[in-house]
Amino acid sequence: MHRILFIGRVNGSIVSMSRINRHTVLVHAAAHEIFPQLVLWGESEWWPKRSLMRYTRTGGGEVAVGARYHQKVLMPFGPEWDVEVLSLTGQEIVREFLNGMFRGKDIVRLAAGQGGVFVEFIMEYRVIGAIHSALWRLFFERMHDKNIELILTSLKRFVEERGPRSMEWNPGTREKLKQMLGLMPIFARTMAERMVSDKAEHNAQGRGSAAIEEGDMVRAFLSECPGPFRAQMLDGLEKVGLDRKKYE
Question: What is the pLDDT of residues 134-150, one digit of tens each?
Fold first, then answer.
């Protein structure tokens, strides 16, 4: 845990400024096995029942940039606020505080580690108001630290106990891949499947997705196909009903 703190005034009110709260855990697993669980932060099956923080997504659909959550500390008179997803990549999620006692953002990111991947939770923030600042320093900050450690430990246990697994494919997308491979010469199918699958998984991770979708696969064909076979590949996409123009 690492903290940096400056104190200043905004419009005559005392606020904490440029404050950083950081927690890290090493998970012995691949990034593609960990990141889909981070996308489900606050909503996943591994979220600890003893956590004092509740996240409620206020809109439907997939988690994406612009998604909003209402956060509440589960205790009498516990603070609450709203956040919005600012960015979502295959390695990092950034959420901005929209109201309540904080201004700033929290970040959950992956970083390469020895024998695994570090999961970092970073809160870059300032506390608004003298009363909130006092309550945070005297009580809520310690509770926050324990809660984040509990959450990261629960994530680590869930991913490591579940064991290694490949990224899932959308069933329809997997079927289109089989059709594309069936149009190729037999000697080229194994190498093409490996190259396209690896790139499609990379594309899905870059979107922060838990599954490989049609666009991930089509972009993989477009980027990985050798030049001499490109015309055949484009013809194959058309034959199996894939519109490459949607993904170029």
Answer: 888 888 999 999 999 99
